[in-house]
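Translate sequence into structure tokens.
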Amino acid sequence: MSGSDQERLGAISPWKKSERCCAGHESYVSNGGYLLRPPIGHICGIDMVEARVTLQNEDVLEPGMAVIIHPTLFTLDGRNSFFWEKLIWVKSDGYERLNQSTDELLTI
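Result follows.
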């Protein structure tokens, strides 16, 4: 799957509900021919999982929050899956991706 962070992460911005993170990922993943299974990620705080990022979560993202986005994608038959993760810092003017590894799928 290729594409920009903006396609997948564009919904992450301050004062928007965390559920919006799911919508961008869901359409991106389905357009790539995969299924997306929740949760999409979680909001981090004192505890590693303060709240899950799901379509049901209406928590508002605020500047200074850390959000880990880790969608699990399945093939259409549901038999195979893969997982990738991004650590996001919510800023007053958008977001910053903290991990800089590539999104390229490597096969070993």
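Note: The CA atoms of residues 17 and 59 lie 5 Å apart.
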